[in-house]
Specification:
By secondary structure, the protein is of the alpha/beta class. The chain contains 16 helices and 29 strands.
Length: 565
Amino acid sequence: MKVVIVGGVAGGMSAATRLRRLDENAEIVVMEKGEHVSFANCGLPYYIGGVIGERSALLPRSPEGFKERFALDVRVRQEVLAIDRTARTVTVRNHRSGVDYVEQWDHLVLSMGAEAVVPSVPGVERAHVLRDVADADAVVRAAEYARTAVVIGAGFIGLEMAENLHTKGLSVALVEQAGQVLPPLDPEMAQPVAAHLRAHGVAVRLGARVGRIGPDTVVLGDGSAVPADLVVMAAGVRPRSDLARAAGLALGPGGGIVVDASLRTSDPRIHAVGDVAEKVDAVSGNPVLIPLAGPANRQGRLAADSIMGSPVRDTAGHGTAVVGVLGLTAAVTGWSEKRLRTAGRAYRVVHIHPPAHASYYPGAAPLSLKLLIDAGTDRVLGAQAVGTEGAARRIDVLATAMAGELSASDLLGLDLAYAPQYGSAKDPVNMLGYVADNLASATTATVQWHELDAVRAAGAAILDVRTPDEFAAGAIPGAINVPLDQLRQSMTGLPPGRLIVYCHAGQRGHTATRLLSAGGRDVANLDGGFLTWQAGVGSAPEAMSQPISGAAPGCAHARPVCRTG
């Protein structure tokens, strides 16, 4: 059996090495267009910033290393130009010799990955992209003589580039066409990330379109010019599927190659894996592009198993991703509220702002969590987390709960590790479950920050149950202040009609709603309290109604993730 694999890195090399472990006698040929068949894609920004000091650390294995350990025929600088499905051949150009040749195959694996989206604006040829080691080398060379930099695109890769160029000592501006950074997140969750960037000296320009790139500036649509000795384009990626299209393989709505659960394309002798292949969205069941390293590695392994005749089934994707930004972490899994609204799904929302570990243990930092829940089934549809510690851990737990089809209320019963320096006896994930259970049982009613104006226009009064000092430090306009501990004695003096109660983060508000409900009042708690409202009104309000592509982050998944390292 002869297997030809087009493209290396995560998906292709996982397929190649798994095939060798399953079959010592198979002939396995890997064709890689670039210079490096295996490199740490996700480490590239940190090499540019100097966090990873040695370039060699990005290159874990050479073609010679793969030949020695796995007996693989790995050929770099070899570009596959065409696929002949009838003859079962590929036409290959050797970029070292300039000679084209034909290679036979019994099975073909397509792992061409994705390419950077480069908008057609004047001067764009001066912009750098970041997809491989050669791109990183070019940015390092350019940064050596630069004092100012503009990063275009505020998705995951854009934020990492902004962080690392800032760390390198450059004056950095981040330009994003959307009204928020990190489009996969909802605006009230993304706003603290933008504020954190600004607090560290990164200029953040939101809702800004690039008009042209000049010799030493980026000119925006409003005519303003941003200094830019160095320009990095991080506007997303799209699948490299032209080869498959020319071969007549079926493509999906996002331009990725259509595959079945075994990673077979419309030609059963051809498999496709990684960023070039469409996945199944775990929430909708529809095709989606998820350009992430984890799915690519897993699919490479599964494709090898499928070629060897084992029954395999790829798992549906949630698009779980995390990014670090100058000491702050943002993480996401599943669908956002924006996307649920666009799809017309009925849902519930939970915001909480607990300390990341026990508040009495030194250094407890705040953690913001958001949970999206199916209103009919209590199924977890998505989650977001932002904080200086604990965000990634909680999103991993929630992504696992989603994969295990736990309900939101089931989260309250999870048996999670606890010590005061790591968490609380009621972990933040458990707290999400408690609130979700209250909503599912109608113990508490809530309203969201972006619903408050409409609710007030309908006649509701806003009641702040924080202390007078908290109220004086900042409050929702028009709210009346009755501290929680005085509420029982003051109930008769409250305005008639519906009441919307809020506190700092929601917990005292919940206690107040129970007290007022027992007194016969029509009352709801402002979900996430003043903290969530403040972040929401400080973000771009229109982001809540901004259409989200069903093709899922700055990648072509409509939500810029691009994690293929």
